[in-house]
Task: inverse folding
């Protein structure tokens, strides 16, 4: 008995959270935030007795127009929390639609993480807390009790970029146990992202596990490379250490990535049991990754049978001099003439790239290139990119 | 040219950090924190014009005695930052020894992350920022420009625990390109941890890559399972969703994990190219994982040739009734008689488990069991566990 008590005592003080913690009234010692109620309302709590104002900024609130660096965009809304006599601030939402939501607090104007929610994702230079509301689309982003694929962070040799580079690879449930060969989806991130973005913010492993378990998508390998050619790995993962992340990295849209993309395909086809042919290759990307996808798929115009452009930065760059951007119209025509099974575009109605996407559609119409076009609510946000992956993946390799 | 400007504009406003950000004076718009100077001093900065007090709590400061739930332990020190006329708080340290350091701010008594440092690790229920000082031990924890192993998050079937469970596996550089078979180190986490702890807070992949590149450790597979038998995956990764993490989970030290550990060995040996014999199996763990290691290695007394106990919770639990904890002395003797190459113990001088480890040494002395014993500065902290892994791994499979 003495030993058991000693053991409990020992375990209890292993905790760094105690050590790093602070003295608070008993009533607020075990704050739950966010607390998701059965009716899909959510209560947020933040203990700050000396603060004058605590607010929450989140995409569950109606979008507001905010100034980006170069113009107005839709941003997450902000609303105040209410303080009680203990100094605990709180707010309870209306019932929320099933989704994956991001948020942070602001305490007297200072952006703050929720200290009671250790679940966060990094997007470019910031960590943001998140939570999931189930019973709908949000279930697609949960780890459910179904067979799971594997997510591997490994390094591939890029002779073209003259470095070993970090890459994330999802292999579907059953990959390890069989001799079967699988099709491959190359899935590209946007500016500010890296080889971890789709598997963290993008919930790609959960989406693929869930789609495969439901029989909605074929088992496939999903290869998630790093599109920032100056990096060997994403911020905090590569040999560049832990600098303050820059949002725009040099050389991300100058043709170098596109020209060397076959290093990634070669690595994949030499290291995984894949069906190494056009019929079993798909490529898709969001924003800057959509730009990359459009250019890679026409620059190698007989390589991919499935192409997905998500909220794509579809600036044709006719002025660019790199050989990758020469003859855009001609190579698109070649791509069309070579034949492909699906050219898929999705964009939100309030996306600042909406106009650029309409112009690109016209270009496709001009050359009689068939495509599927999906228009959704919302702007240039991860919510849409997760939805787009969940819609696009079931269309592949059928 | 017009298109290029539009493109730049588009890219710039992709950023969530802008949208979630706030208006600050130009002078503090691009705060660097932490800023590591060439002389290994570090400047921390925090913009909080309306705050009355901003402090930093970190393990680079001299340890202080703090009250844990059941007694005094060493905790990280705290020191104030100084405010300037813009409301920017800062402090510059003395030159710091090369290490991996954790920290957080406190703003008017409220624990805060550094909003300018997106690099953080989760330990139990809290996120904590970190930084690395190089030119010494800290280099062991960096991703250097050397060959890299792979880190895979996958799921194994545990018939004993009746679930699929998430597990992290490091395979060394070259694993994929050869037919070679490799030895295996099973590496166990402590209370409050899970299958991600060693590869995040523990920097296990970087440590192994660096040791292997220096020729100090043999290429080996490192298997990092989840020791919380009620979970199928760690917090935020398993089917339990995103609850507020509990520090002590049910059934973590009641014999169930130890009794079913062979599910993990079987999975490893069936799914990886391993040398499946005692000479090529090692097991080590920190704190609760040291407790598990001690019990697993004597309960299966002819299975592991290398055993590492790091800051171990070495309470023998002679009072426990589970069959795993019966006949502790007898099975230790059997383990000794079966022979093994290394029984290794490491503990910090100020660890609250120091006494329990001395008692366990006596027990080993009583049965004439050989062991190596390492005593370091410091207490029950990750700093020590990273150092212990970097010392233990070179002793394996020689």
Result:
């Amino acid at each position: 008995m003495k030993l058991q008590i000693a053991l409990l005592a020992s375990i209890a003080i292993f905790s760094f959270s105690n050590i790093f913690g602070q003295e608070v009234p008993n009533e607020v010692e075990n704050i739950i935030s966010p607390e998701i109620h059965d009716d899909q309302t959510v209560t947020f709590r933040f203990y700050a007795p000396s603060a004058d104002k605590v607010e929450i900024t989140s995409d569950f609130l109606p979008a507001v127009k905010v100034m980006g660096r170069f113009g107005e965009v839709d941003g997450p809304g902000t609303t105040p929390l209410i303080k009680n006599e203990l100094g605990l601030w709180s707010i309870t939402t209306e019932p929320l639609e099933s989704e994956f939501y991001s948020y942070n607090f602001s305490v007297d104007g200072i952006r703050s993480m929720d200290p009671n929610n250790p679940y966060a994702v990094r997007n470019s230079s910031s960590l943001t807390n998140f939570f999931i509301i189930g019973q709908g689309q949000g279930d697609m982003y949960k780890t459910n009790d179904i067979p799971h694929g594997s997510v591997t962070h490994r390094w591939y040799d890029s002779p073209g970029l003259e470095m070993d580079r970090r890459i994330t690879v999802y292999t579907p449930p059953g990959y390890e146990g069989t001799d079967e060969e699988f099709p491959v989806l190359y899935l590209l991130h946007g500016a500010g992202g890296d080889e971890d973005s789709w598997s963290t913010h993008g919930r790609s492993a959960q989406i693929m596990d869930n789609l495969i378990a439901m029989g909605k998508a074929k088992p496939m390998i999903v290869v998630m490379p790093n599109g920032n050619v100056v990096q060997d790995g994403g911020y905090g993962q590569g040999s560049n250490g832990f600098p303050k992340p820059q949002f725009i990295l040099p050389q991300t849209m100058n043709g170098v990535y596109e020209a060397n993309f076959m290093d990634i395909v070669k690595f994949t086809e030499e290291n995984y049991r894949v069906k190494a042919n056009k019929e079993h290759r798909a490529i898709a990307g969001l924003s800057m990754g959509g730009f990359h996808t459009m250019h890679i798929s026409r620059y190698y115009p007989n390589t991919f049978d499935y192409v997905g452009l998500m909220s794509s930065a579809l600036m044709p760059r006719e002025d660019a001099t790199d050989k990758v951007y020469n003859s855009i119209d001609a190579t698109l025509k070649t791509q069309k003439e070579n034949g492909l099974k699906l050219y898929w575009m999705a964009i939100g109605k309030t996306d600042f790239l909406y106009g650029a996407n309409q112009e690109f559609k016209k270009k496709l119409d001009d050359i009689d290139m068939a495509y599927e076009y999906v228009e959704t609510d919302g702007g240039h946000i991860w919510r849409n990119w997760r939805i787009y992956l969940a819609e696009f993946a079931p269309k592949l390799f059928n």
Summary: The CA atoms of residues 301 and 335 of chain B lie 4 Å apart. Chain B has two domains: 25-134, 141-395. DSSP finds nine helices and 20 strands in chain B. The first strand of chain B starts at residue 35 and ends at 36.
